[in-house]
Design brief:
Distance between the termini: 47 Å
Helix content: 40-55%
Structural class: mainly alpha
Number of strands: 2
Oligomer: single chain
Shape: globular
Largest sheet: 2 strands, antiparallel
Order of helices and strands: EEHHHHH
Mean pLDDT: 89
CATH topology of the domain at 22-95: 434 Repressor (Amino-terminal Domain)
Length: 109
């Protein structure tokens, strides 16, 4: 029986993968409230910046501008999925704005 987080290998067998919570599972108020985990907080800030960049425009128009699938943008904005690097890069390029601020906290050099 396959469960969430189970990956089927190409040549048979399964490999367990550490389950990753969706953003709305990290915080019920995603993305409106800060979260304590710095990695999740970095992504939350990206989602807020993406929301501002889209502004009064529609998700469909943003999808056309960015060449990111509507479903992907919709899921990221609703906290149902984490954005990947290609999504971040395409949304920045297509909307002409810096959306990813980088890590919230890094150790001192």
């Amino acid at each position: 029986m396959l469960t969430r987080g189970t990956v089927i290998r190409r040549y048979g067998g399964t490999v367990g993968r550490r389950e990753r919570l969706r953003p709305v599972e990290v915080s019920a108020a995603w993305p409106r409230e800060t979260v304590p985990d710095p990695v999740h907080e970095s992504v939350r800030r990206y989602v807020l910046n993406l929301t501002v960049a889209i502004g009064d425009g529609s998700i469909r128009s943003a999808a056309k501008l960015t060449q990111v699938n509507y479903s992907t943008l919709h899921a990221v904005l609703r906290g149902e999925a984490w954005p990947d690097a290609i999504t971040v890069a395409r949304t920045e390029q297509g909307l002409g704005a810096r959306l990813w601020e980088g890590p919230v906290a890094l150790p001192e050099d």
